[in-house]
Design a protein that fits this description.
The complex is a heterodimer. Chain A is mainly α. In chain A, helix 5 runs parallel beside helix 8 and helix 6 packs across helix 8. Chain B is mostly helical. Chain B has one domain: MetI-like (MetI-like fold), CATH 1.10.3720.10. In chain B, helix 7 packs across helix 8. The chains are: A mainly alpha, B mainly alpha. Chains A and B meet through helix 1, helix 3, helix 5, helix 7 and helix 8 of A and helix 1, helix 2, helix 3, helix 5 and helix 6 of B.
Chain lengths: ~280, ~260
């Protein structure tokens, strides 16, 4: 700033530049420190890369003959899809009822709303892993436990979303229906439901996508389905079988995305017809 | 309400949908071994089991802090590295920056990655790198690239072309074009998405711990396997706290970013 500077101020790095350099250096140092703290060596990625190539070598070619030899593989795929499907559907139905009880404009009792809302919040907070473990012990290892875990998860997720959607409906149709002498159920059927249906449908399809991935993951922990088969193949070091399962998972998830998209389009066109 | 409301014809078109749906539900409940008799018995068992979790063993709380820190670090390291890689992938997968062959390759790679759940990714990586936090970092980095890369790519394809053209007009190279016309437009959305991803990564990091990346998820699994349910409760409380704090932090930073501040 003053004349004592050896270099003209205009040639010094700008404040912005210096700040950026500091931020970059500090964050790099923080990341490096974190890696050291975790005993994780990023160079292991390069040094131990032969493990990856080894693994890939052991995985190739995928044992695609497994689909024919192993009779339990195709049913296990259907198991996984079944879990996600049932959990999403039942979760949506149960959550809708709960949401009606949790929304301000459909349930006048403050206590009831509070209880339902806090139950839903509690469910959303509990880690899936814990829910699955408790259910695995109580209903036994298998797809039913995983399905129940996904069901609880869906209820927690949907319940809040639906309740918020119901609270934000336009009050005009509600009052108009009420004026004609409709009962509370009729108001819900003819004034609330048509307004929230599009958001419910969209959420249900999104949740199916999430639940399907989760169903694969829960299978790894003993929830049955294709995740279980994949983990089994891994734990006995049959990597070619594991790769076949992995391919199956990828194909299944992509295929179900397409199927869900087709259904969604159909449902929205039906809704448009009803309008 | 006119009488035709109850005519069968009005509901006839829904019959097939209802039949297909009930058939699907039946098949699905058969395959997922739904059993309501079991459920009644099991809820008693579950209640007893949940009872075992109380009272929490608060004395093990100090022992949980180290693992919790590891869980946070896994997400905190994987998110920025993943974001940087995602930026490169996003640039490579944008129509207006990269040639078609590169776009197709990166897009299909990322789509492939998004099709794989994180847990499965970790299972495969554990086979290569063994058990440890590093496996978790690699897995979450890859998972972050899959999601953020697509978002960045889409954002770059939708940027305002006027800025790009005016920078190109003054004779900027491709690198300069990206630096001065593309990045400033996608940076805010990238950062907000990265904050959201951090939240997702924290949750995933807890779960991945149970398979072998260490941290609080591992403590959770260990204490359950050793039937020390009182400790499990503490681990659950700690992981809840982590998720809650991560949510708050990412919310705060996101709203700060959305208000236009802090991008220096």
């Amino acid at each position: 700033m003053n004349a004592t500077l050896a270099v003209p101020y205009a040639q010094l790095p700008s404040v912005r530049f210096r700040r950026r350099v500091t931020v970059t250096l500090l964050s790099s140092a923080a990341i490096a420190g974190a890696l050291v703290y975790m005993n994780a060596d990023p160079f292991a990625l390069v040094r131990d890369f032969h493990f990856v190539t080894n693994l890939v070598g052991q995985m190739l070619p995928p044992n695609l003959g497994l689909f024919w030899h192993k009779k339990s593989l195709l049913p296990s795929l259907i198991d996984t899809i079944s879990m996600a499907f049932l959990a999403t559907l039942a979760g949506a139905i149960i959550a809708f009822v709960l949401a009606l009880l949790a929304a301000r404009n459909t349930t006048p009792y403050r206590g009831a709303r509070l209880v339902i809302r806090s139950l839903l919040a509690m469910e959303r907070c509990t880690p899936e892993y814990l829910v699955l473990m408790v259910l695995l012990i109580s209903v036994g290892i298998g797809p039913f436990a995983a399905m129940l875990t996904l069901l609880l998860r869906s209820i927690g997720m949907f319940g809040k979303l639906f309740a918020d959607a119901i609270e934000h409906v336009d009050t005009g149709p509600l009052e108009a229906t009420a004026v004609t002498g409709a009962s509370r159920l009729q108001i819900i059927r003819y004034a609330v439901l048509p307004q929230v249906a599009p958001s419910i449908v969209a959420n249900v399809f999104y949740a199916f996508d999430v639940n399907l991935r989760m169903a694969v993951a829960l299978g790894v922990f003993g929830g049955g389905g294709i995740g279980f088969e994949l983990n089994l193949a891994r734990s006995v070091l049959r990597y070619r079988d594991m790769f076949a399962c992995l391919l199956l998972v990828i194909v299944m998830i992509n295929l179900m995305e397409r199927v869900a998209d087709a259904f969604r389009k159909r449902i929205f066109s039906l809704e448009a017809q009803l309008e | 309400m006119n009488p035709s409301d109850f005519s069968p014809r009005r509901y006839a078109k829904h019959v097939w949908g209802a039949v297909v749906l009930s058939a699907a539900v039946l098949v699905a409940s058969w395959r997922s071994e739904v059993n309501f008799g079991d459920l009644a018995k099991a809820s008693g068992k579950a209640a007893t089991l949940v009872g075992l979790f109380f009272p929490p063993d608060w004395e093990s709380f100090p022992k949980m802090i180290g693992p919790a820190f590891i869980t946070v670090l896994i997400a905190a390291v994987a998110t920025p590295i993943g974001t940087l890689c995602a930026l490169a992938f996003g640039l490579a997968s944008a129509r207006n920056v990269s040639p078609p062959w590169l776009r197709l390759t990166t897009r299909s790679l990322m789509a492939l990655e998004r099709g794989i759940p994180e847990i499965i990714l970790v299972l495969v990586l554990v086979a290569a790198f063994g058990i440890g936090p590093f496996t978790g970092v690699v897995a979450l980095t890859i998972a972050s690239i899959g999601m953020l890369g697509k978002l960045v790519g889409d954002a770059i394809e939708e940027i305002d072309t006027a800025t790009v053209e005016s920078v190109a007009c003054v004779g900027a190279t491709r690198g300069q074009l990206i630096r001065y016309a593309v990045l400033p437009q996608v940076m805010p959305s990238l950062l907000t998405n990265a904050m959201f991803r951090f939240e997702v990564n924290i949750r995933a990091s807890v779960l991945l711990g149970a398979i072998g990346s260490g941290g609080i998820g591992y403590e959770l699994m260990l204490s359950m396997n050793q039937l020390e349910y009182h400790k499990t409760t503490v681990a659950v409380v700690v992981s809840l706290l982590l998720v809650f704090l991560a949510e708050r932090l990412s919310d705060a930073i996101r709203s700060h970013l959305l208000e236009g501040g802090g991008l220096s």
